[in-house]
């Protein structure tokens, strides 16, 4: 029985030539699909000859079935585990016994997806290649990088970097891919952001309109459609949570809240003032909120008539128009606080709409800006 005759000396070993990364990293399946050529070289002591004895022939092309080849396999494959290579790819053998083999493969390998910053994410995936030979074949890398000479640009992913490292009797070929987010921003992020802004304008629809509640429910269903689309893109068992998913769930919850608030506003608007007068505590709250949010005086408010001569500490000829206006505003505001008969349920509903619109417009603007800064800086 013959002992090991194949070795991987200096300048021999295994090299990957990467022509293409197919389509995309499949987030839902956490799988990287790619096509690559492997350049495998080794030295075979039984395949040496003297060119002078064979008509000056220094190199031949041998049938793979007739020559020993290392048994290589992808350890982290998501397909059936099998030996790499096919019998129709011939081997190059020179007279020094150096054998070169170029098996082409389509890999489907497991890639742990980090979706925190989706769709501005960067993914790092590997191919773990090891040997099944029992005669002590030691795998070496020809270069500590993947050859990109034949690489074709991918529309969904940009190849950032690659490297090769040696593990426990295996070679680990690593690629770092950065997503090209333009299409997702245009078709997903931008519509969701616009829908979030439109959602707030439900509070600008008059309560008398019959479409106010329909507007809120339609927007809620639209967020549900976008949320289901995003969930189809992302893995269900990811160790990290996507910021985009959190934002979409927040928008969905907010839209549900808008539906409930719209129902509340409509109920208040249709309430009978004679049977159910506005409670004094609610009147005070609404008036204070109107003042805080700088809402204009309601049309039902009576503006008090003030004589200029009654201004304290001022003579008629010394009173300016600006001072008169300031005094009248204070008197009008005091009258609103004191005279609860001016408050109606229609005024409560209209004021509540205006308050909610301004509050949520500010809240959504701040939260959206903070989320995008977090994703961009991350």
Automatic annotation (TrEMBL):
Entry keyword set: Ion channel, Ion transport, Membrane, Transmembrane, Transmembrane helix, Transport
InterPro entries the record matches: Neur_chan_lig-bd (IPR006202), Neur_chan_lig-bd_sf (IPR036734), Neur_channel (IPR006201), Neuro-gated_channel_TM_sf (IPR036719), Neuro_actylchol_rec (IPR038050), Neurotrans-gated_channel_TM (IPR006029), Neurotransmitter_ion_chnl_CS (IPR018000)
Bilayer disposition of the protein: Multi-pass membrane protein
All copies of domain Neurotransmitter-gated ion-channel transmembrane, residue ranges: 188-287
Database matches in Pfam families: Neur_chan_LBD, Neur_chan_memb
Highest taxon in the source lineage: Eukaryota
Transmembrane region(s): 183-206, 213-231, 251-270, 355-377
CDD domains the UniProt entry points to: LGIC_ECD_cation (cd18989), LGIC_TM_cation (cd19051)
Assigned GO CC terms: membrane
Compartments (UniProt record): Membrane
Molecular function GO terms recorded: extracellular ligand-gated monoatomic ion channel activity; transmembrane signaling receptor activity
Domain (Neurotransmitter-gated ion-channel ligand-binding) ranges: 24-181
Family the UniProt entry places it in: Belongs to the ligand-gated ion channel (TC 1.A.9) family.
Protein name per UniProt: Neurotransmitter-gated ion-channel ligand-binding domain-containing protein
Species in which this protein is naturally found: Pomacea canaliculata
